[in-house]
Amino acid sequence: xxxxxxxxxxxxxxxxxxxxxxxxxxxxxxxxxxxxxxxxxxxxxxxxxxxxxxxxxxxxxxxxxxxxxxxxxxxxxxxxxxxxxxxxxxxxxxxxxxxxxxxxxxxxxxxxxxxxxxxxxxxxxxxxxxxxxxxxxxxxxxxxxxxxxxxxxxxxxxxxxxxxxxxxxxxxxxxxxxxxxxxxxxxxxxxxxxxxxxxxxxxxxxxxxxxxxxxxxxxxxxxxxxxxxxxxxxxxxxxxxxxxxxxxxxxxxxxxxxxxxxxxxxxxxxxxxxxxxxxxxxxxxxxxxxx
Length: 291
Fold this sequence. Notes:
Structural class: alpha/beta
Helix content: 25-40%
CATH architecture: Alpha-Beta Barrel
Oligomer: single chain
Number of strands: 8
Largest sheet: 8 strands, parallel
Strand content: 5-15%
């Protein structure tokens, strides 16, 4: 496959395909590789520009799975989708899996640990030439809720991601490969997520494309909590709120949004973009890109 980085030429919607039994949202739905590939192709047909395949849950409290098990879950799906021309992102924190998935056809490596969980990841990504999503991360899923302690979450998270970027570049990745992700819901409470979301445009100061993953996140469920009981909205009932969040992210210049249900999100983002397209001066692109 081509080793040309795609970070500069892809902008749009990434849809999540969890081949795990314990994802917070749709765990267990797509464990069969054949069904998972069919579902991924359906995602692409519904306007997903990228299908993000993950074999290990990152929900709060989740524990690690053996590498062999993770590889067995994801590689048949990556191969099947890539064979059909789908741009696949591999969601992993392991260098071994990233390398195997790229060999199988993946075009993006999405590491929710931002290269910090496996010291070999940056070199592996550097050799592959693939775009590399560096997400803000403070600790493993089973402890991350205890690490949501900030004075200024916007400034601190951005500074920590900048250090992560420096570390992966020093270890072998090309700066041009890096895409940044503020890590909504990871080591963050509802108020932290809200503050980050209100200041997404400030992340362009890092000089890299911005990926945002608001889909079905806990802060949306708490925002939409039942007025009588205070119970958060269930994860599968947060897609309308996810579409609204995606519109707000796009308006702040996000390169891509990562969601579970792409059609409503794609439609909403198109509607948000239409007035800007009409206002754009002749000869000037109407798509707002991160620098």
